[in-house]
Amino acid sequence: MSLDKRCLLNAKGETEEEFLRNYDSERYKKPSVTVDTLIFTVTDEVIENNRKLPDKELRILLVKRKDHPYIGQWAIPGGFVGINESLDDAAKRELMEETNVDSVYLEQLYTIGEVNRDPRMRVISVAYMALVDEKNLKPKAGDDAAEVKWFKIKFMDKVSEEKVKTEKGFKVSRDIKIELISDDREDLILGSLKQIEKREGSMISIDTEIDKIETNNIAFDHIKVISYALERLRNKLEYTPIAFNLLGECFTITELQKVYETILGKSLLTPNFRRKISPMLQETEMMKTEFQHRPAKVYRYNIEWNNEF
Amino acid sequence: MSLDKRCLLNAKGETEEEFLRNYDSERYKKPSVTVDTLIFTVTDEVIENNRKLPDKELRILLVKRKDHPYIGQWAIPGGFVGINESLDDAAKRELMEETNVDSVYLEQLYTIGEVNRDPRMRVISVAYMALVDEKNLKPKAGDDAAEVKWFKIKFMDKVSEEKVKTEKGFKVSRDIKIELISDDREDLILGSLKQIEKREGSMISIDTEIDKIETNNIAFDHIKVISYALERLRNKLEYTPIAFNLLGECFTITELQKVYETILGKSLLTPNFRRKISPMLQETEMMKTEFQHRPAKVYRYNIEWNNEF
DNA sequence: ATAATAGTGTCTTTCAGACAGTATAGT
DNA sequence: ACTATACTGTCTGAAAGACACTATTAT
Predict the structure, then answer these.
(1) I need a surface site. Which of A111, B77, B209, B251 has the fewest CB within 10 A?
(2) How many contacts, defined by CB atoms under 8 Å, are there between A and B?
(3) How far is C-alpha A273 from the chain's CA centre?
(4) How far is the CA of A271 from the C1' of C25 (A)?
C-alpha cells in the first residue's frame, strides 16, 4: 500500500512528488492565525483583619496594547503563530513569555473566526486557557517593559433572563456581567454581554452564542473569550480535578474549598465538600497552623484517584 | 472615548488610520486554514428478520480524495476557509455542499495545528461536528461526482489499559479501536489509537492526547479527529438534548433509546431511560403501529424543557 | 395462544443537601 | 473562657439502577 503510493497519479497524471513540486501554496489569500492564552490564577484576598483566614480571588493576566488597533486598551496575551510552530507550542511560548512558567495546565478552548475582528486583516484566533499556581510565577526578566497587570475577576452569570417567542420556538437571552479590576485599582474593565440560547424546531441546541457586547477598555472581542473561558472553567471544575492546578502541591481542604467557591461564585457546605473531594486527596504528615485556631491537616492531590471504574 | 480614538498615536507617531494604511499584512508567512466538518447521522440497521424492530447504527460521511496528498483515501469533508468567510459559515457551506441540508446542529470541536500534518504546506484545521437527521438528506445535485460514502461506525473505547510510572507520577494509556465500514461493504477503514492520560505532580490533567495512530485508507490525521468527536458526542449525550437532532421531529421512545444505545455503545434499562428522558418529551396525538405488537406513542422534543432552575 | 414490543410500579442503593455537634489551636 | 477554624455524624430526600410486572397489537 505505502510502497505503490509513489505510483498513484492524479487527474493531471502527476505523481505525489510531482504534484507537491508544482503545488502553489499561495494560490489563495490566507488569514492570519494567532494564539491567545488566557492565564488564570487564584490568590489570597488582601484583608484588613489578620485574625480571619483570607478568601481567594480569581485573577487573569492582561497586557496593555502598545500599538494600533485598540492602542492603550487591555488584551489577552497572544501573538501570531509561527509558520513552523504548533498551536500548542505557540500557547506555551506565550505563557512562558508572560509568566515565566512552563509545564502548567494548558487547554485549548475555542477558535474565533468572525471576519472583521481585527481592522488590520482577517485574523483567526485560537484561545487557550492556562491555570497557574501563584507561587510558581517568577517575575519575568526585563523585557520591553510591556505593561502587564493581573485583574481580579467578578463574574456575574445570569443577572437576568428573558424569553422571546420566535416562529418555530423561542430564544432565551441571559445577561452576563464581568468586572475586571487591576490590583492597583487604576484600571477597571466592565463587560456586559448577552448569551442567546436558541430552541427552534428541528434545530435543537442549547449551545449558546454570545452576542451584543458592551464593554470599555478591552481590546477586540476579548471580553467574549473571557466569558467563554469562565463558563468552561466552572463546568470543568465539577467533574475534573482541574482546580488543583491553581494551588501548590500541598494545601488544606479549606483552601481548596475557597478556590471552588471563588470560581463557582457561591458558597459550599463544608461537610459535603469534604465528603465529595476526599477521594481525590492524599494525607500528608504536615499540619498548617495559623492564628488562634485548630491547625489543619495538609493534603496533596491523590494521583491515583480515578473518575470511574 | 471613541471620539478621541482617532487622536491616539502609537510609538511611531501614527494615528490608527495612518497605522492601518502603512500596515503590511503580508509581513509574516501565514498558515493555511481549513474547516473540516464531521457529519454524523443515525439510520436503521438493515435487518433480515422483518418481524424485529431494526436497531440503529451511527454513520459518518467521508469523501474520497481525488488528488494528492492521500489520493484515493477517505477524508472528512472540508476545505479552505474563504478570506471573507467566517469559520461557522465555512462549516455550513461544507455541510450544504455534501448533504444539501442547512439549519442543522453544528458545533465547533477542536482545532488541530501540528506542523507537518499536510505535505503541501502548513495547514491548521478547525473541526466541526454536524448531526443530521437521515430523512433530511436530499441527494445533492450532480456536481463533479466526487465519491462520497456513508460509513458505519464501530467505536471501541478502552479496549485495554496500561499504567506506566514516570518520574513524577504516571501515565495511563488506553487503546481505542475504530472500524468504519461503507454501506456497500467495499471500503473498510481500521484505526487503532492510544489515548494518553498524564498525571504528573503539579501538572494535573485528565485531558488526553491521542497518540500513536495506526490506520489505513484514511487521509491525514482524520482518524484522530473522528475519535475525538465520538468522545465528545458521548459526553454531550449525557447532559444535553443533542440526540434529538439525529431523529425527525416525531419519534417513539424506543427509537430514541436505540439512538442513545448506539452512540453510548451499551444497552440501557428501558424503565430508567423512560423516566430520565420523559421530562424532555412532549406527547403527540399520533401512534406508530408496526408489525405484530402494541403500537407506540409518538413524541416530540419538549422545547420548554429546562436543564436547571 | 403466541410473539414482540410498549409501558408501569416499586424496591434498593447511592449520593447530594442541610445542619447539629465535637475538636483543638492561640489569646 | 472565648474566638475562630477544623472536622465528624447523621437525617432527609432526590435520583439512578435493577427487575418484576402489566398492556396491546397482528397472526
Answers:
(1) B209
(2) 185
(3) 24
(4) 20
